[in-house]
Amino acid sequence: MAMASAKLNTLSSQWIAHNSFSPRRGSSSRRVSLPIRASSYQHELVQTAKSIASPGRGILAIDESNATCGKRLASIGLDNTEVNRQAYRQLLLTTPGLGEYISGAILFEETLYQSTTDGNKFVDCLRDQNIVPGIKVDKGLVPLPGSNNESWCQGLDGLASRSAEYYKQGARFAKWRTVVSIPCGPSALAVKEAAWGLARYAAISQDNGLVPIVEPEILLDGDHPIERTLEVAEKVWSEVFFYLAENNVLFEGILLKPSMVTPGAEHKEKASPETIAKYTLTMLRRRVPPAVPGIMFLSGGQSEVEATLNLNAMNQSPNPWHVSFSYARALQNTVLKTWQGHPENVEAAQKSLLVRAKANSLAQLGRYSAEGESEEAKKGMFVKGYTY
Q1: Is the dihedral of CA 16, 19, 24, 30 positive or negative?
Q2: pTM metric for this prediction
Q3: Residue 212: pLDDT above 70?
Q4: DSSP classification of residue 262
Q5: Homologous superfamily of 41-368 in CATH?
Q6: For 244-301, how does the pLDDT look when each residue is reduced to its tens digit (9 = 90+)?
Q7: Residues forming the active site
Q8: Where are the domains of the chain?
Q9: What is d(CA 312, CA 55) in angstroms, rounded to the nearest whole number?
Q10: Does residue 202 contact residue 240 with C-beta atoms inside 8 Å?
Q11: In degrees to the nearest 10, what's the CA dihedral of 240, 246, 247, 253?
Q12: Is residue 147 within 8 Å of residue 187, measured between CB atoms?
């Protein structure tokens, strides 16, 4: 027994020695363990991310909480009921031809488990059009103690078990939104908390087969110039990638959902799409490794046309990543106003969704023109302190 134990200890020591960094001559003798990551989902994660980041396609975000969806419905005079939420999401997810322009759809938990009025699961409706189902997994923003009136995102408790269930239900990617406020500093504490939370979520998601969308939204609130946004964005993404690496997250199996680098919404001077593209791409090139497959921008309250013009400007020359969109309001605004909750308007509303999806598809390819866009599509949708 003693000989067997000694042999086991020798083998263990040899394994540890082989899988550790040896100190350089003259340095401390302390060994540093080499992190080893072995995920049974690694190949699938990479394939899922590549599928979502496919040419001419982007993400439709319909992951608003029930409360926020209720506000959308109230804007057209509908009550916030499950039946009405189902009807609206059915309109979106069953749009014929949507898969030509949309590669992924982020769903709220309620929607992931819902079916159409004909009994077809929403996840199957998406798969039939080669659209990958995704799921919002965070539990929302709460005040961050010790900060300058800032927030942190909750939801890590129980995330592993929830993610495993979402995978069984058909979800293949996840979304976690946290925010950074420039008028509030941002404080070093808030930036670190945002980055660490995103990294832990990303690692847990990958362990359960879900491609994590990494989203530290830098809010448009404020009157700061575009140079200040660039400074903050570079700091935030530096921290995010540091902690992603610390948590052994596979970069080839993630997607990013950044804010565009713009002036604050209340800044006296408006930036052109070319300026926004220049500053945004500068930030990305300085901070994002080319191993990341896709950059799926959020619209953040820009008008439908603004968001599309800015995306188009970023695709006028080749990028090391797929630069695309993950829009909610910038895809849905005209759709909702066309529908008005009336069954006879469903077809027209679906056509308006295709118009917006096609416009952003062209922008992803760098071939969009705003000629012929409606006045409704040009209206800004910024809401100070916006919550999902």
Answers
A1: negative
A2: 0.87
A3: yes
A4: -
A5: Aldolase class I (3.20.20.70)
A6: 999 999 999 999 999 999 999 889 999 999 999 999 999 999 999 999 999 999 987 7
A7: 215, 257
A8: 41-368
A9: 13
A10: no
A11: 60
A12: yes
